[in-house]
Automatic annotation (TrEMBL):
Function: Converts heme B (protoheme IX) to heme O by substitution of the vinyl group on carbon 2 of heme B porphyrin ring with a hydroxyethyl farnesyl side group.
Superkingdom of origin organism: Bacteria
Subunit record text: Interacts with CtaA.
GO annotation, biological process: heme O biosynthetic process
PROSITE patterns, alphabetized: UBIA (PS00943)
Protein name according to UniProt: Protoheme IX farnesyltransferase
Pathway stated in the Swiss-Prot or TrEMBL entry: Porphyrin-containing compound metabolism; heme O biosynthesis; heme O from protoheme: step 1/1
Gene: cyoE
Lineage summary: Bacteria, Pseudomonadati, Pseudomonadota, Alphaproteobacteria, Rhodobacterales
GO cellular component, one term: plasma membrane
Localization annotation: Cell membrane
Keyword Membrane: yes
Catalytic activity: heme b + (2E,6E)-farnesyl diphosphate + H2O = Fe(II)-heme o + diphosphate
Length: 312
């Protein structure tokens, strides 16, 4: 997901709590926690509040461990890109060895403790999520193909499946659809960012779509993926975790997101540069509201269902 500002806010100096916390990519972690929490509460089996709290804690630590290992591996390009130069490693506040040890320790701790607290299925999905984000996305896809964010987006899509597995001990159509919603949302979300951050990726030699195929092709890809995303988002409304509240929210957000994608597709570079990529930045902000809105609506439906009011 997106983590563009927090790390630059930590004060310069020797490594402290704030530096190691920044390694966890807290903005990304917040999305991991939220979607995992929704997946847990939307599941048909109730979970004891203490078990649920412990599960979300270790899911968050697992997501943070992935972020620390990502920063360890990407320290070289983080020193080049403007938006990442202030992170703890390129800023010299944390060494690469410290980040590696910190991330590895939290990875093992989070998986083992989630297994002990809940079940092996949830722990296995968390372990695979960490592996996928670090080894498949960070070490391989990110620097080798413009499809990096398309395939790599799966790493950020697993948390609701983990939350669901905590409660049920398994996987279902609903959890797969929540995964697919995030998976299909990730490319247009990141490509909207890449449109106005192209120079960063170009200087770091990261083969983002804007670098390899240009902004015009990227604009078309945003529209295509947004069109493919809409039926998935709306389809969730007819499952056991959907309902009228979710459907109403999904209709509004998908219409807004589609309009934004069309607006981006219609623009040329002269227009974008003239207004400082205002539309692209607006759609990027909308993409954040889009995901939180959908999962927020699922949360509302699950809460209403407790009182016999949610669902169809």
């Amino acid at each position: 997901m997106t983590d563009t500002s927090f790390e630059t806010q930590v004060q310069q100096g020797d490594a402290g709590f704030g530096d190691f916390f920044a390694l966890l990519k807290p903005r990304v972690m917040s999305l991991v926690v939220f979607t995992a929490f929704v997946g847990l509460l939307a599941a048909p089996q109730p979970v004891h509040p203490f078990i649920g709290f412990v599960a979300i804690l270790f899911i968050a630590l697992g997501g943070g461990a992935s972020g620390a290992l990502n920063m360890w591996w990407d320290a070289d390009i983080d020193r080049i890109m403007k938006r990442t130069r202030g992170r703890p490693i390129p800023a010299g506040r944390v060494t690469e060895g410290e980040a590696l040890g910190f991330g590895a320790f939290l990875s093992v701790l989070s998986v083992v403790m989630l297994w002990l607290a809940t079940n092996w299925v949830a722990a296995a999905i968390l372990a695979f999520t960490i592996f996928f984000y670090v080894a498949i996305y960070t070490m391989w896809l990110k620097r080798s193909t413009p499809q990096n964010i398309v395939i790599g987006g799966a790493a950020g899509a697993f948390p609701p499946m983990i939350g669901w597995a905590v409660a049920t001990g398994g996987i279902s159509t609903e959890s797969i659809l929540m995964f697919t919603l995030i998976f299909m949302w990730t490319p247009p979300h990141f490509w909207a960012l890449a449109l106005f951050m192209k120079s960063d990726y170009h200087e770091a030699k990261v083969p983002m779509l804007t670098v390899t195929h240009g902004r015009k092709a990227t604009r078309a890809h945003i529209l295509i993926y947004t069109l493919l995303l809409a039926p998935i988002a709306l389809g969730l409304s007819v499952t056991s975790i959907g309902g009228p509240v979710y459907l109403a929210v999904a209709v509004v957000l998908n219409l807004l997101f589609l309009k934004g994608a069309v607006d981006i597709w219609r623009r040329d570079e002269a227009q974008a540069e003239a207004d400082g990529y205002r539309t692209e930045k607006k759609v990027f902000g909308l993409s954040l509201m889009y995901l939180f809105g959908h999962f927020g609506a699922i949360l509302v439906e699950s809460t209403l269902r407790v009182y016999g009011l949610g669902g169809w």
